[in-house]
Amino acid sequence: MVTYCHKCGTKNIDKTHCSNCGARLLTDINNDGIPEMVQEIVPVECPWCKTVNKVTTETHCKSCGGPLPAVSHNNSGINRGDMPPPPPRKLPEVYVKKLKYRSTLFIVGIIFIVPFIWSIIFPIIGFFLVRSALRTANRKIAALENGIKAEGELIDIYKDTSESVNGRHPWRLDYEFKTQNGELITAKKTGAWSNNNRHRKPGDKLWVVYLPENPQINAIWPPVD
Fold first, then answer.
1. Peptide bond into 212 cis (omega under 30)
2. Which residue of 40, 171, 188, 218 pairs with 192 in a disulfide if CB–CB is 3.0 to 4.6 A?
């Protein structure tokens, strides 16, 4: 069977993966060299490293290996995809670094510390900003790495006009889930810039991971940043 790779165009004979780029080949049912499923390729932004993946049946990012959200092939919606693996989970290192060291609060804190190291007030302010940023990041990392899974639901999603970068506004997601003890938790995710969120709508089902000792420490899986 002859199949041309939909990603790099390489001609492959009797193979399941491209001999050039390694992509999983689409089935050429009629043996005419034209993959029947090529129209079902959709761009999905990796929530971990922001790489745009051209997805057919792939479930993990080609760059960092993180699990991808499941966007429908006609771009009509997005579902929660596979359930989170059991804890402890290994998160892509690029995502952990982004959470810790690229937040606005952390960067502002560093700006207060480094240029004004000779003074007293500004470094103190910067220290508390950095500490707050790292505490927030570590709470989310703890939920993603060690949280137990729960079925959640998206209550509302909209553009947050109170925040703007270069004329763009991030998404805000309000969601809820029940703990293993039946407690209903309502939470929110702000500052969500991912283009994947344009596929979401109220009522969508979500996977949420949370710490059983403190369900307020929770996160949507995979992330919606």
1. no
2. 171
My answer on whether 156 and 203 are in the same domain is: yes
Q: Is 74 among the domain residues?
A: no
What CA–CA distance (Å, rounded) separates 182 from 151?
A: 12
Domain extent at residue 125: 93-144
What one-letter code names the amino acid at 36? E
Instruction: For residue 111, give the DSSP letter.
Output: H
d(CA 63, CA 185): 34
Q: What is the pTM of this model?
A: 0.77
- What secondary structure letter does DSSP report for 195? G
Q: Return the percentage of the chain with pLDDT > 70, whole number.
A: 89
Q: 175 and 221 in contact (C-beta within 8 Å)?
A: no
Looking at the structure, tell me whether residues 181 and 119 fall in a common domain: no
Antiparallel, parallel or unpaired: β 171-178 and 184-192: antiparallel
Judge whether residue 28 has pLDDT over 60: no
Q: Assign residue 217 the CATH number of its domain.
A: 2.40.50
